[in-house]
Amino acid sequence: MTFLRERGMGASILVAALSSAFGITLLAITAYIGFLSTSAFGDSGSVSIMLLVVSTVFIGIALYVGAIVTSNTFATIVAGRTRQIALMRLIGSTASAERRRVATQGLVVGAIGSAAGAILATAIAFGGSAVAGRLLGAPPYEDPVAAWMFVPVIVVILTTWLAAWTGSRRVLTVTPSEALGGSVARSREELARGRGKFAAAIVMGLLGILLLIGGVVAGLVTPLGLFIAFPGGILSFTAIVMAAPLIMPPVLRLVGRLFGGSTTARMAATNALRYPERSSRMAIGVVVGVTLVVMFGVASQTFVSVTLTGTGEEVADATGIQELLDVLSRVMMALVGFSAVIAGVGLVNLLTIGVVQRRTELGLLRALGLTTGQIRRMVMLEALHITLASTLLGLVLGVAYGWAGAQSLGGSGYGYRGLIVAPAVPWEPVVVIVAAMALLTLIASVAPTRLATRISPVEALAAE
Amino acid sequence: MDNSLAASVAHLTKTYGTGDGIVTALDDVSVGIRRGEFTAIMGPSGSGKSTLMHIMAGLDAPTSGQAWIGDTEITGLNDKELTLLRRRKAGFIFQSFNLVPTLDVKANILLPFDLDNRAPDPHEMRRIQDLVDQLGLGRRLAHRPHELSGGQQQRVAIARALAAAPELIFADEPTGNLDSRTGREVLRILRESSAAGQSIAMVTHDPIAASYADRVLYLGDGRIVADKPRQTAEQISAHMLRTEQEAAA
Question: Fewer Cβ in 10 A, N or C end of chain B?
């Protein structure tokens, strides 16, 4: 179990714990709201089922982002362990046995994290329902947790295992001879093998865009346009996530150019592109969070705007809609925001391991005269590079999806036909996102900066 | 301070560990590296030659004693001052080349200037151009290090070290990772630039490499055991063998 002390394992445990705690808590809250509505309105469970479906979607998003982060972490760990794996291969271990070992570590990490998350969530469920019961004056609630709510525990263990397995693909390419010889040029992480790998994503993306356009056009006549646009949104966004290694590098390159031409800036900008696949997947986790938050905000604001334009004087009615939508979109944003926290853990991890695996290079730069202040700036720029690129892409996508959603639902207005309004961007979520990203950049660069500035050139250059 | 010295150390001692486990890497070493000379620091593994170089270059601090680069005393400087000193007065060539993999050849050569937030002046620009021509790197400027052979990478490292004409260049086993023909080429380049006035201190345990130097300092057990003018590889090997036999006897 000594591997648990290895860098990156702690983060994977944290991700598993956050995912399972989030899942269980959300299910417990869903059950509690169901209980409240049953005791208040004698509802027979349709509210509960609807809430359950919505919760499942959000848990799914969180688990998905968590799996991306874990798989990335394991890929990074394997890249740093090449020597050790090569040595095992040299002694006679098979590649598949080595890969199984990495995957088993994922299973252990998933089990530990998931169990910790379950304990935390149980505490939250008991405490939360007691407090809520007292505040609302609701009847006593017998069982804040039930066995079925612990399904996420199993799912998180399985996804972590699976993520470790996918992340450890590179183990198969390590040759025994890599254990020999002085300085083997660190083989680059396998790059996207051509565009063929993304063919499915591209087809899905195009289909999704067509459906989105169709939905918006249909929305000019009927609110049912949403039912065309919705699958289009899911298809195209899944395609974007799948094709991240194709989409993110150009965005990262563009943002990198903003940093200017100084060498530290250029080095920071190229570091994110050193392992394009790794950075792209890490960034896409943040993109998912930002996109969904912005989408909910823009969708509700634009819907209000299109309704206002349509109804003209019936402003009072629209204010009611606005209030309801505001509450709804805030809840949605908070739920999605949790996935962004998990993506943030992944970013911290990516930067930290990046610094650890660049010890010699940073030692060299220190020897050549890079001050600790310059190192600090460089690491900070690296973090900023990924958050900025993800935020920009997320904002653009969120505005587009939110607008398409509102247009397809409300474009037909109240009897008026063919209303097209410009996307309305509420400033509140945008400000929150920008502030959260600034905070994430700062937090993400603390640990790696401390590591990087402590590297002594002598040590780093001797450890070749 | 003697103006003819590019670097010097006085009564330098460096120990690692404490109590019974104490290891003395350098034992009261006093020596000067003369300006414009190509000096080799020879010695078997564990003789303290790398420690001596690290302290001279301001990469490591001695337990006691003093060190100077040019006329600047470096012992007692803080990390920031040492960093700026290395940036402006020292150049480095390493065994494993140590180029920045994400920068192309040109950016690697200009790295010392960029770290100093300045562009080379016309005089320096001309020198860099001459170096690039002389080292045959003209058509490689836009390449990344991984696209170059070991010998070419080391030539880029040499260009980087020579570009700013630092007070002293420290070379740590510069031929250690090269085949013998490429290694000889690198040594010839170092000797030529020293003939043109560049001070170079090279740490090595290879008698052939040391035979290219104007002066050979022998280290053994943390002390300077001999200080000889230019020697042939045979003389150096014989010297090393003799000390080895004396130690065994």
Answer: C
